[in-house]
What does this fold into?
Amino acid sequence: MTTDRLHAILKAAAAKRLLVIGDLMLDEFVWGKVGRISPEAPVPVVEVTGESFYPGGAANVARNLREFVANVSVIGLVGADNRGRQLRDLLKDQGIDTSAVVEEAGFQTIVKTRIIARHQQVVRVDREAVGPLAAKHVETVAAAVRKMLGSIDAVIFEDYGKGFIGSDLVAQIVKDAGAAGKIVAADPNPKNSLDWSGTTVVKPNRSEAFAAAGVVATDLDCEPEKDADLLKVGEILLNKWKTSLVLVTLGEHGMMLFQKGETPHHIPTKARQVFDVSGAGDTAIALFTLALASGASPTEAAEVANHASAVVVGKLGTATVSRDELISSFRSESTK
It folds into this structure.
């Protein structure tokens, strides 16, 4: 795809409105340096030099979209606690609509704490309580989405397997969004087997795709387009999920796009250096959906998502890709 075509897609994207639904998290990064080993146990002692906080999980999908569009809304669950308020404040500061976020007094806001020393993650600490969304909240969220459908162009489900996204919620929203002619994308979780019938695209990574298809995962030892197991999985998932598109992310091997009645299309990775793969899937589903909503073909949308993910993995922490960085990545490709 040419940079002129990318500019046309991004110009159209600026006016789009998107809604992200899923597990909201607060990502905390504790930065430090290691100078010695603890005398108490054979572990490094990290001397803290700073802390950073970012919206994570489904909120990170919204952050990636906000780099390109003015109107992004997010729906998820937070607790009536300090971390929940901090997360909502971070989202509001970035211009992301949180008016439909559900707050529950008995729920602990999900926090992932990563301790980083010398550009390497030493340990991650998760504070979370996993459980299904209460029925009363399902109805509240579904009703809120119905009210928003007239003013949005696409819906993204971001499932981290923490309980917010369930079968009843998905069924109601997919039905309503489909009736309204909206694009519906899903980033599934292998712990949560859901019926994605009626969605436009489902984006698992390779291991998630194999698990969902019931095929034993094997190491990729050939070119993706010649990987018989992967090709089989793609066909199975198109039929199982009854979706128009399945986009399988392949890490350092790029992505594979499956479409009904079309030859699977492989998009090689654009990453030049990899520092941190956390959040790359968030970027991929965000940019693929946005490009699709902006008039890109599925293949073009996959190229946009692939370039965007390549930029993000070259950064440390929960990162996003900017418009200029995305354009620069395409320009670098075209000059080779």
In short: The mean pLDDT is 92. Residues 170 and 196 are 8 Å apart (CA to CA). The radius of gyration is 20 Å. The chain has ten helices and 14 strands.
